[in-house]
Each structure stands twice: as structure tokens, then as C-alpha cells.
Amino acid sequence: MKWWLVGGAVGLSLAVLADVGVKGQAAAEKETVWLSDYTAARMLARQSGKPLFVVFRCER
Amino acid sequence: MRGVNLNVFDFDYDLTWSAFFLNADEKVYGRFGGREPGSPDTYLTLAGLKHALRQALAAHRREPSAQPASKPSVRTVEQYPAAGRLKPGACIHCHQVYDFRREQQQADGTWRLDDVWVYPLPDNLGLRLDPDQSDRVAAVQAGSPAARAGLRPGDVLERLNGLPVASFADVQYALHRAPARGEISVSWRRDGRTMTAALELTDGWRRTDISWRPSMWGLDPAPHVYGQDLGAEEKKALGLSEKALAFRQGDYVPGPARAVGVRAGDIILGIDGRAMEMTMLQFNAHVRLHYRVGDVITLNILRDGKRLDLPMKLTARTRN
């Protein structure tokens, strides 16, 4: 199984994604950084005060 | 799933994709994902994800330091004894959480067949949700518990079974935690007002087609036959209806089926002479749900144009 996590900095990108149009969306996507270390992601979230977006992708 | 705290990341482990929104203290604001049996991605829309994200971010802005109701203890899949059979470092798939948990419950004597009805569908209560905003009611089935509660298309769900909901996954999670019978609370917004009611849960309300679930294969007893469903044309040529069960046994024939005479290429039509309208996967689920280890079934088979009946005693699978 692989899992990817979005840390605090990326939470902002996703927040922007929710509110802007195509041009802003493209800019936000460039800022997206996926992490695979949950502990590091939590630390980032704590430092930045931003939420985590955690994705589980499981192969059968 | 190694190292994942199941007490925080509590989701439908048969899924191939699932998402959480939470803060650094592991307060979960919401979930996204979930599926219905016939379609894996009906509720995986970008619009639905954006809606769920907006709701989660709003919750985070309101209370960025929100704490979980109780500090979740650590529970990992490696703690189940069955995980000890795996090679060190071997990948543990999501659905194996269900497999390993069931094995422990069976060893403890606490397993019940009703435990297979996980993450029920809102449709079971007559509630059809909008995939692009899945806290919004798209349709309500007449005469259903949702209809009796007063829900209407266009209503926006706020809480279900005491939990906030913003997505199909949130709704399924709230329903997963609901009892097998009784009632749960539901609240929704309509024309700027919040309304509340109780949703009735009648016997069997959790039941759904489980044939898509990988964890289904770990249930006993297995019929030990599986393969490709025949297409409509091939069924027609054999004089079978389009919905009739008919699948061709694959090249590998498991030992118990081989022992009773099943061969690769046999067409399985049913059991005990009964007409069955289902797919190969549904057939495999059907046997597991309706028969017990030790029962004897008769496999009805078509081989080289001739019908054969092969009695088979259902056994428990051997575990590696």
C-alpha cells in the first residue's frame, strides 16, 4: 500500500483551489508538495497551523 | 497499512482510495471517498472533493486547535496475530485489516456474520445524495425511512447519527456507527432553517451487495469456483437469460473443486438446481452468506454442451 499526505503548506494550495478559477488553480497546483512521512507532515501542520489532507491509495 | 493508527484512520478498508482532512492533533474534520457496489467512482467527483475540502477548511478556521473527543490510542494492523504470518516488511493491504480483525474475532468467538455489513449506503434508508455535493439530497425514495423523517430533494444534511457530514464518506461513516435496529438522529438545512428528525433503522437495513469487497474472499465457506462471466451473446446461444448466472471456470481449479470433478473451462450455472440471476462475484458472496462450513451443495455445470451435477461439501479454507 502507498499513502501520500499533504502537509500544512499544501493545505493552503487546496484552500486556494477551492476558491479560484483555472488560472489560480494551475498556480496552486504548482505549489503542491506531497509528503509520505506522516510524522513530518504532522510537524509541518503544527508549525504552519494548516490542516492535513491525507490520502490512502491501496492496491489489491 | 503498516504503522497506520487504525483508531485515527478508521475507514472502509475495502476501498482502493480514501481521504481524510484533519489537524496536527488528529482531530478529523471530514472524510472523502466511499463507493456503491455497482460503481467504484460515482462519488469521487472533483466538485464533491472541493465541497468537502471547503467544509473541512471552514471547520479548521473556526477551531484550528480542535482536539479529538478522546486521545486516540494507537492500534495498528501489525498488532493482529494474523499479521505475524507475513514476512517481515511485507506489504499489508488495506482490506487485510478486515481479514485480520475477523480472524481475531473468530478466534475470540465474537465474530457474527452481520459484521460483514460495514459502511452501509444512504440509499438503504431511501436517501440518494448528489455526487457533486454529497451532503445535498438528490432524491428520496417514497415510503422510505428518509421520506418518513421528512427529508426532501434539495435538503442539505448537517449531522447524522450525531456526526457532522459534508461528503458521501462522512455519511457512510456515520451510518457505519449506527445500530442494527432502532433510530438515529438526522438534521438538515432547508430554506435557511435547521430541521431535525429521527431515521428509523429496521432489521436488515445495513445489508448491501458485498461482492465487490476484497475482504469477501476471506469469508468461509468458499465455493472454490470462479472465473469470467459469460457475455450476453454467449448466454443467448446457450439459451440462458441475460441476467442468469453463468461463468467459465478459469484455468486454475482450486483443490476442493478439482476433487469433486470441476475442470477448467466448465460453465457454472448455479447450485441445487435453482435458477440464479447474479454475477460470478455475487455468486461467491451468496455462497459465503447463505451457507455454512459442512453444508453440501450441488454445483450445476455445463461441460461440452452437457449438464452435470457435482455435489460438494463446503469446507473452511486453509490459512497460510
What report would you give on this structure?
- The complex is a heterodimer of chains A (60) and B (320).
- Chain A has 60 residues and is an alpha+beta fold.
- Chain A is 50% helix and 22% strand.
- Chain A has helices at 8-17, 22-30, 38-48, and strands at 2-6, 34-35, 52-57.
- Chain A has a three-stranded antiparallel beta sheet with strand order 2-1-3.
- In chain A, helix 1 (8-17) runs antiparallel to helix 2 (22-30).
- Chain A is extended.
- Chain B is 21% helix and 24% strand.
- In chain B, the strands form four sheets. Chain B has a five-stranded antiparallel beta sheet with strand order 9-10-11-12-13, with no helix packed on it. A four-stranded antiparallel beta sheet of chain B has the order 6-5-7-8. Chain B has a two-stranded antiparallel ribbon with strand order 1-2.
- In chain B, strand 3 (127-130) and strand 4 (133-140) form a beta hairpin.
- The relative contact order of chain B is 0.11.
- Classes of the chains: A alpha+beta (60), B alpha+beta (320).
- The A-B interface holds A 1, 3, 8, 11, 14-15, 17-18, 38, 42-43, 45-46, 49-60 and B 1, 3-4, 9, 11, 13, 15-24, 26, 29, 50, 53-54, 56-57, 60, 64, 91-95, 214.
- Strand 3 (52-57) of chain A pairs antiparallel with strand 1 (17-22) of chain B.
